[in-house]
Every structure is written in structure tokens, then in C-alpha cells.
Amino acid sequence: MKKITFILFYLIFLGTLTLSAQSIIKTPAPPRPAGQTDVLGLRCDPIPTVRVGFIGIGQHVW
């Protein structure tokens, strides 16, 4: 019974993803000013303290 419930849940989940993928909101990107480049090679001075926060790290037991 658990296997059938899992399979049905999985199929409903895949169907929801398929339907939601068709309604993605697309926003046009504004044009870049002349001379502006990407930030792939951006480097800055190191800072003494780095704080990082994680949101949504829970213990879900399925």
C-alpha cells in the first residue's frame, strides 16, 4: 500500500512540475551600459569576518 501511495504521489508531483514549467514568468533583461562587463573575474579585499546563514535546513523524515 505504501508503494502505491508513493507512486501516485510521485506521478502527481511530476504532473505538477510539467504544468508549472509551462507558466514560467519571463522578464526581459535591460541592456548593459557601454563598457560594462561581467563579474566572473571580480576580486576584492578580504574581510575579517564572514557570516553565512542557511534558511530551510530542517530534518524532514519522509
Low-confidence stretches: none
Number of strands: 0
Kindly, what is the distance between the CA atoms of the first and last residues, rounded to a whole number of angstroms? 16 Å
Rg for CA atoms: 22 Å
Overall structural class, as computed from helix and strand content, comes to: mainly alpha
Helix content: 25-40%
How many helices?
Answer: 1
Strand-residue proportion: under 5%
Chain-averaged pLDDT: 78
Question: How is the biggest beta sheet arranged?
Answer: none
How are helices and strands ordered from N to C?
H
**Shape category:** flat
How would you describe what is shown here?
With 62 residues, the protein is mainly alpha-helical. The chain contains one helix and no strands. The chain has one helix spanning 2-21. The two termini are 16 Å apart. The model has no long low-confidence stretch (mean pLDDT 78).
Summarize the helices and strands and which ones pair or pack.
Elements: H1 2-21
